[in-house]
Specification:
about 260 residues, globular, mainly alpha, two-stranded antiparallel ribbon, 10 helices, single chain
């Protein structure tokens, strides 16, 4: 138990800084780390991945509150994108809890890893969007919002790994994309967590579980992410956008590779 407390506390510190700096909610680090922590705690094998995803989303509720407050104070959020995406992101996130419950653990883990690997390669490359490209119309925006919410909920990553690259693709400045993603992460994580609690309500996993959410780990991680997320926000506004983009890509590449090796 002491090892779990120390591991989750350290994870919360790192995840909070990354969440504020990159607008990723911290889930990209929390999910693979929790997979290892829960396995070390003797968690039932069939529920390790889905519990890691659900618990990660639960912590992102609190991380996003902290990061979003800091970004709003800096007036960095693109509210027009927020208004167009919020409801659809929430709908996709809620559905993800029920979809994930029907997928074999290895399929869920490999799928998450492959997606993150693809995004990391794009972010690490010298690719730049067509300067004339802008956010799509109502139909295109609806598809992107629903896709972002569903995929983010399935991966337990709070949306930043999906929404930030999408916004950058449509020429939204990196810092603004990070700020908007941090703000959208709150409703996404809240509703996604509710979905995982409901879908796992009749599943008996272990003491301390609420649906698929493992509350002891969620409380420990969230306690530290809330403290360190504003520090990450401050860093995001001091680091040049190209450097921020490369940091984002490098982190995704390392995590995706580790998840893929672990799954296979």
């Amino acid at each position: 138990m002491m090892e779990m407390i120390l591991a989750c506390s350290g994870l919360g510190i790192v995840a909070g800084i990354l969440a504020g700096m990159l607008g990723i909610g911290g889930g990209v680090v929390i999910v693979p780390a929790l997979v290892m922590i829960l396995a070390g705690q003797g968690f039932p094998a069939d529920y390790i991945v889905i519990s890691a995803v659900a618990t990660s989303l639960c912590t992102i509720i609190f991380t996003s509150i902290s990061a979003a407050r800091a970004q709003i104070k800096r007036q960095a959020v693109d509210w027009s994108i927020f208004r167009r995406w919020a409801l659809l992101v929430v709908a996709g996130s809620f559905l993800s809890g029920f979809i994930a419950g029907q997928l074999p653990p290895v399929v869920l883990e490999v799928g998450i890893a492959c997606f993150l690997l693809l995004v990391s390669i794009i972010m690490l490359s010298k690719w730049t969007p067509n300067p004339s490209r802008s956010m799509p119309g109502p139909v295109g925006t609806s598809v992107l919002g629903l896709f972002s919410g569903t995929l983010s909920g399935l991966a337990g990553i709070g949306g930043g790994n999906v929404m930030v690259p999408l916004m950058v693709f449509f020429n939204v400045p990196m810092q603004r994309a990070v700020a908007t993603s941090s703000t959208l992460g709150l409703p996404l994580a809240l509703v996604g967590t509710i979905g995982y609690v409901i879908s796992g309500w009749n599943t008996t996993i272990t003491d301390g579980s609420l649906g698929y959410v493992y509350l002891p780990a969620a409380a420990l991680i969230a306690g530290f992410t809330v403290i360190t997320a504003p520090l990450g926000v401050a860093l995001s506004h001091r680091i040049p956008a190209p450097t921020l983009k490369r940091c984002f890509g490098a982190l995704l590449f390392l995590v995706a590779t580790r998840m893929l090796i672990n799954a296979l």
